[in-house]
Amino acid sequence: MKYPFDRNFSFPRRTFVDRLLTFYDNWRVAARERRKVEKVTIIPAKDAPALGASDLPLVFVTHNEIALIPAFLSHYRRLGVTRFICLDDVSTDGTREYLMGQPDVDVWTSPIRFEAARRGRRWREALFERYGYNRWYLNLDSDEFLVYDQCLREPLKTLINVLEEHNIKRLPAPMVDFYPSSEAKSRDGNMPWHVVDHIDSSGYEVTLQKRGISVKGGPRKRLFSEDNELIKYPLVYWDKDCRFGSSIHRPLPYNRNFSPIWGVLLHFKFFTNYREKIAEAVSDKQHYNGSQHYQAMKSEIDKAGAIDFVDEASIRFVNPEQLIDLGFMPTIEFDPDDARLAPSRNWGASV
């Protein structure tokens, strides 16, 4: 299916056979994960008090992201996050020192690196276990900025109310890569999209697979033929049935990965310092297959001095409402009966 969606799009209803295949694959992989329990050591770098019942925590992994961290914290504080729980992977650019000075940030470290922790998945599972099951968490990287319909007015707890009313335990959100252009920037603001503000408006595809929704495409596919998975689940209800299994893009249980209510992750892999970040990723070899996809990007930079991202599909990002108009995510409307948000009918009620 083409993505972004048409405004009147409705997901095809999953058949009984589809659901049965999901159930079987979940049973098989969950059993394997239970047999392969891999405990990792995480160490608090500062006091990490227990969460309160009203807290909305955000778990994230970071490495040398001082260029984005202040905006990252500001964005999620405005959305209602009350505690940030960070695993810092040996940052050397001032990121850790900055986070240590933030009263609402818990900082953790580990004696192993990102790749050895199954690219951070075991760290995240350890942090969820440490802070407690049976509650909502945001689960993000420090270059990901979640938006959803009415996020400029409605906090995340209101969105959580909607998900709970519809018995939905995860919010899917594709990563939409932002990239620089040669156009002059207004720089009126301190968020990363005020500086790096272009996205691909088309050229994506979505499929419904056994383990969840899949979205692929965007500038990395257009420029480097990379088949990166873009979907993530940045807002999750985490209980003892949850695991990341083989991929952060397909958390267990798989039957929770099909929701008609979506957000979008504004993704800043290609921020103003992308040349340095790509070179570091290549030398560090902490990503999939020895950072193979970063090697392709570095080859382009070595050849041309920079990556020319702009294409006929490129548009300038304006605001989250634009992503609704383009079909990247559905509208969420107020329900006049209880003054809470409810999903629009446009995307259908079931997948």
Would you mind describing this structure in some detail?
This protein starts with a strand and ends in an 8-residue tail after the last strand. β4 (about 85-90), α3 and β5 (about 105-110) form a beta-alpha-beta unit. It has about 350 residues and is an alpha/beta fold. About 30% of the residues lie in helices and about 20% in strands. It has a domain at about 275-310. The strands form 4 sheets. It has a 9-stranded mixed beta sheet. Strands 1-10-11 form a 3-stranded antiparallel beta sheet.
- Number of helix segments? 9
- Portion in strands: 15-25%
Read across the widest sheet, the strand sequence of neighbours is 2-5-4-3-6-12-8-13-7
Broad structural category: alpha/beta
Order of helices and strands: EHEEHEHEHEEHEEEEHEEHHEHEE
Low-confidence runs: 338-351
In round numbers, the mean pLDDT is 88
**Global shape:** globular
Please give the number of β-strands.
16
Main beta sheet: 9 strands, mixed
How helix-rich are the residues, as a percent range?
A: 25-40%
Distance between the termini: 14 Å
Radius of gyration: 20 Å
